[in-house]
Design a protein that fits this description.
The chain contains twelve helices and 13 strands. The protein is an alpha+beta fold.
Length: 347
């Protein structure tokens, strides 16, 4: 098959995405496919005469920097200065492909917009459809949808502005988790134990657009469960060596200890599996996703969020969970392609 792997894009998670895309492209070539790896935002801007499906895959994309990219600098680097989030030649390349593997994360990748564009083009793509992707990207909307099915921390949605900042600092119950309503990779996530920490977290949220989920802080073990083809994979526990599982700890080798299967009682595993599948089905997701939980000492899984295009980097969790049931990385990528073609009605 001819497969286009879309990565990068104009998202704070673009570096993570490029790393995911590099490994996916290499794995699919190992499976015998003709694969092109293209940055959604820059597209074919370089104007190379080489066929992208034969071009070498940049090794530099594999490593994820500790710092979130400056998107203003990214925008400034594109020669055509177009306001489009889709780079030159990308849609034409999509039409040439038998399928598009979405290795995108965050805006334009997980929020349903690129899925909707590909639906209109009639090009099959990996993962969930446009509507389900849009719902899952919105943490508040997802929680509203599943609150009667699973246990979730108490939360409120606020648009943080200069006018209400002081009031929020005084009235939010502590400790609290402060995070953007529609971001991933723990970008912009803060745990506030004091009013000073809360003030900083809310001020940073205002800089990211203001729409913010303020969530009850739950003390417990961080355990995540992937769903692949409507089947829960073994849970994985994440133990950061310092702090919590933030952007740096997620993507720097050795910053966190991942244990899969998680060392938990069978009853806890069952509860996690049931909760992950309940969310997956209620949101209308398909193919694969990863649900994040905090599990309290009594074994109660508190649902946090679900990711429709989870990371596929060297430190990512879904590949580790798949490996625990004997699915190696190339086979995981192949399975995602095959299940996605079925979900899109390809066969």
């Amino acid at each position: 098959m001819k497969i286009l792997v879309l990565a990068g894009g104009l998202s704070p998670e673009r570096n993570v995405s490029l790393s995911s895309g590099t490994l996916v492209a290499q794995a699919l070539r190992q499976k015998g496919h003709s694969v092109a790896l293209v940055d959604l935002f820059f597209g074919l801007e370089s104007g190379s005469a080489a066929d992208p499906f034969d071009a070498p895959i940049p090794e530099a994309f594999k490593k994820v920097s500790r710092e979130v990219p400056d998107l203003d600098q990214v925008r400034a680097q594109r020669a055509d200065k177009s306001p489009s989030a889709i780079g030159p030649g990308v849609l034409e390349l999509c039409r040439r492909a038998d399928a598009v593997f979405l290795a995108l994360h965050g805006a334009c990748g997980e929020d349903g917009r690129i899925q909707a564009a590909l639906d209109l083009l009639g090009v099959p793509y990996t993962g969930s459809g446009s509507l389900a992707s849009a719902v899952a990207m919105d943490k508040d909307l997802t929680k509203r949808l599943v609150a009667g099915l699973v246990t979730t921390p108490k939360w409120r949605l606020e648009t943080v502005t200069r006018d209400n900042l002081a009031e929020l600092i005084l009235t939010v119950d502590l400790p609290a988790v402060v995070k953007p309503v529609d971001s991933g990779s723990s970008i912009g996530v803060y745990i506030a134990h004091t009013r000073e920490e809360l003030a900083h977290a809310l001020s940073e949220s205002a800089k990211m657009g203001g729409r913010t989920v303020i969530e009850q802080y739950i003390q417990g073990r961080e355990i995540q469960v992937a769903v692949l083809e409507d089947r829960a994979l073994p849970s994985i526990e994440i133990i950061p060596k310092e702090g919590f599982y933030d952007y740096a700890n997620k993507y720097q080798a050795g910053a966190a200890v991942d244990v899969c299967p998680a060392p938990i009682p069978e009853e806890w595993e069952r509860r996690l599996e049931e909760a992950a599948l309940a969310v997956f089905r209620a949101v209308g997701l398909s193919v694969y996703a990863r649900a994040d939980f905090i599990v309290t000492p009594d074994g109660t899984p508190y649902f946090l969020e679900i990711n429709t295009l989870p990371g596929m980097t060297p430190t990512s969790l879904v590949p580790q969970e798949a490996a625990a049931v004997g699915i190696d990385y190339p086979t995981l990528c192949q399975t995602i392609i095959e299940a996605s073609l079925k979900a899109r009605g390809g066969n």
